Amino acid sequence: MNVPIQKGKIVDLCSGNGVIPLLLSTRTKGTITGVEIQERLYDMAQRSMDYNGVSSQIEMIHGDIKEIPKQIGYSKYDVVTCNPPYFPTPSIEEINKNEHFAIARHEIMCNLEDVMRVSSQLLRQGGKAAFVHRPGRLMDILHFMRMYRIEPKRLQFVYPKSSKEANTILIEGIKDGNPDLKILPRLLYIMIKMSIIRKSEGFYMERNKHYFYVLECRDGSYYAGYTNDLLRRIDAHNQGRGAKYTRGRTPVELIYHEIFETRTLAMQAEYKFKQLTRKQKQKWMAKEDT
Question: What is the pTM of this model?
Answer without folding.
Answer: 0.69
